[in-house]
């Protein structure tokens, strides 16, 4: 199963405020997380489907939600037809 990444508008504001080195570290970790987002060691116990990424060296923590949703079968084809 492939996963995609979407930022909430408030999270995007915070993302842009981060320094370049911290963002690069998070990008590297996020690329790994997109392959396997449900790592039990990173799960937040108090929130369902919420996980974390910790950068120990810089002291930052990123929390994310894994949201799984079904799409209609023809939705992809309709969107492709609109682009053509």
UniProtKB/TrEMBL annotation:
InterPro entries per record: RelE/ParE_toxin, RelE/ParE_toxin_dom_sf
Keyword annotations from UniProtKB, A to Z: Toxin-antitoxin system
The keyword Electron transport appears for this protein: no
Record carries keyword Transcription regulation: no
Family: Belongs to the RelE toxin family.
Protein name: Addiction module toxin RelE
